[in-house]
Design brief:
alpha+beta, Helix Hairpins, BirA Bifunctional Protein, domain 2, 2 domains, eight-stranded mixed β-sheet, three-stranded antiparallel β-sheet, 22% strand, elongated, RNA-binding
RNA sequence: AGAGAGGUGUCCGAGCGGUCGAAGGAGCACGCCUGGAAAGCGUGUAUACCCCUAAAGGGUAUCGAGGGUUCGAAUCCCUUCCUCUCUACCA
């Protein structure tokens, strides 16, 4: 959620930024925010003033009672009724104001960083860099991963359908081991990079969902455990970032770096089609997430650091990849700047998104009330960042497709110690 | 899951209808004391929103959360969350 004071102080900058997101009329929208906030303040002044009066009267009555002046006290009591009903009315006004202000703020996405390119869709994303060699596959050695997994019997979709439904695959044998190897590899790398490993809950309450911005706008994307009002996490970002909800850290604690492995659950309602065959899109998948809480001055250097960390993983996995700077139209609601990492899946001949690294600046921390005390002892909002490092299924897809040959599928060297084998054959 | 107890400031802990943002202690900060330190003494020690601002000052709210009773609630009532003890169950 944007900060009202920031909007007030940097009105033009906010408008310019929101235009990159193709918001039709950010000016009037932001004006509306300021108007509501003004009204809120004005109501507060009135309410507080009357409440002060009411409090004074109550004190007076107390005093009179003590002095035994019963008659006078009773008379004073009768006078309070009018003021009380006014206070009550103003309290309701205030609550209404505040609620509509917050509701409006919830509909406004984060202001993009100046470096974010304008644009409408994924087509307009900026390719920052591309690395690695795209393998040249031919003939029988150019099987898409959904055929390879059948050939080697390592991932079983039909079995998942029986147990749960579409999009819940069963990993078997070397397929299951590959999952475990990747998770351990990613966690070990994160630890080396200074991230503290955590294992958070994978069900979250409503408050957590609001705090990191999944609610209210992505309500339909999450699975709901209705009996208990809990949501299955769509990403470990939610529980890990929420560890710091309502916290005041000290400046010396920053940056906080956490990494965690969790399964992730996404309903992906209305998001299915031919282009999402096999492992390309699932309802349940595994991911290692890295999360940072930083000083506002440090968040962009940290974002670069996280991007390099993810790139390092892809290099070690010997996968050809590219880095995109997302345009205003393609960027997530809560992000100020996002890099997407895509690997090339050689049989599908497609780039697959395997990571998304974002700086949210204070958009999340404002809802989270995640602050720190700076050197002037002032409490200020921290910046939050997170990124996938990495999401497994598409990595698996690319590994299978890119490394296939007549001898089988060769695993990258870094994984061999984790796997205990080099070939899937 | 059942029965009981309880949730107060950085921490411990008192308060159980009025002057309580909240006794007392510990901690922390600053000052005095000291050759230095400890002890001792003194002073200070929450957050949010808002008013007025040059500064100072002031208002409102906050004693797990939400609602209610009352002129007035940390104190009474209701709902809810959490913790502890016992019982039951269980990976």
């Amino acid at each position: 959620m944007l900060q009202v004071n920031e909007i007030r102080d940097n009105f033009d900058r906010a408008c310019e930024g929101l235009k990159k997101r193709n918001l039709p009329e950010p000016e009037s929208l932001l004006q509306e925010v300021l108007k509501l906030d003004d009204k809120r303040k004005q109501t507060q002044v009135e309410r507080d003033g009357l409440q002060a009066e009411s409090n004074a009267m109550a004190r007076q009555i107390g005093q009179l009672m003590k002095e035994g002046k019963k008659e006078e006290a009773e008379a004073a009591k009768r006078q309070t009724a009018a003021i009380k009903s006014k206070v009550k009315a103003l309290e309701e006004d205030y609550a209404t104001c505040e609620e509509s202000l917050i509701r409006l703020l919830y509909t406004i996405p984060n202001v993009p960083h100046p470096s974010v390119p304008a644009g409408k869709s994924a087509e307009d994303n900026e390719v920052v860099l591309q690395k690695g060699t795209i393998p040249a596959l031919t003939g029988t050695q150019k099987m898409p991963h959904w055929e390879l997994i059948k050939k080697y019997d390592i991932v079983d979709f039909e079995l998942g359908v029986k147990i749960t439904g579409a999009g819940f695959p069963v990993y078997k044998g070397k397929g299951a081991k590959l999952q475990r190897a990747l998770i351990n590899f990613f966690l070990d790398e994160a630890e080396k990079a200074g991230y503290k490993e955590v294992q958070p809950p994978i069900l979250i309450n409503e408050e957590s969902g609001y705090a990191t911005g999944q609610l209210p706008d992505k309500e339909g994307q999450m699975y709901l455990a209705g009996a208990d009002g809990l949501y299955l996490i769509p990403t470990a970002e939610v529980p890990i970032t929420n560890m710091y909800r309502n916290e005041v850290l000290s400046e010396s604690d920053l940056p906080k770096k956490n990494a965690g492995y969790t399964p992730c659950f996404r309903r992906e309602a209305g998001n299915w089609g031919a282009h999402v065959r096999g492992l390309n899109r699932l309802h349940q998948f595994d991911k290692v997430e890295i999360v940072q809480i930083t000083h506002p001055d440090q968040s962009y250097p940290s974002l670069e650091e996280m991007s390099l960390h993810v790139q390092g993983l892809l290099q070690k996995l010997e996968l050809p990849y590219r880095v995109l700077r997302l345009c205003g139209g393609d960027m997530g609601f809560t992000a100020a700047l996002t890099y997407d990492m895509e690997v090339f899946s050689a049989a599908q001949e497609r780039w697959l998104e395997v990571s998304s690294v974002s700086n949210f600046e204070t958009y999340q921390s404002n809802r989270l009330k995640l602050r720190f005390k700076n050197q002037d002892k002032k409490t200020v909002l921290a910046h939050t960042l997170n990124g996938s490092a990495l999401a497994l299924p598409r990595i698996v897809a690319a590994l299978l497709e890119n490394n296939q040959s007549d001898q089988g599928i060769r695993m990258p060297q870094v994984l061999v110690p984790y796997l205990g084998f080099e070939w899937i054959s």
